[in-house]
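Friendly challenge for the regulars: who can give me the structure tokens for this chain first? No prize, just bragging rights.
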Amino acid sequence: MINDLVADSITRIRNAAMRKLDVTTLMHSKLVEAVMVVFQNKGYIESFNVVEDGNKKFIKVVIKYDNSGKSVITEVKRISKPGRRVYKGKDEIKRFKNGYGTIVVSTSKGVLSNEEAHKANVGGELLCSIW
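First reply, four minutes later:
Bragging rights claimed.
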């Protein structure tokens, strides 16, 4: 059994991008689905959809590449882990990688990017960073 579905999903996306695969499959949870919504809104993945196979759900993610065939994801990292949770207040969540990167934050208003959390004036748990 996997304890950290977000870390597993990030690793699967990273590995698929390194191998230049078009599609990868992730295990489903509401949190992983919310993280994929942020990734899609920010343009790091083409699309995703939830697939049901019997009583199990999976998320099919289409990886996005630029014109030269290189993945648009340079680096993706898990920040908050099950053994060490990382929380930041509303004033500490601003820009990441000078505006080129995104931090995914789990807030009381849902899973948001760092810019959306700063605009909504909320802090929360830093899930992962991507650029």
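The longest strand covers residues 45-53. The chain has one domain: 5-130. Your move, everyone else.
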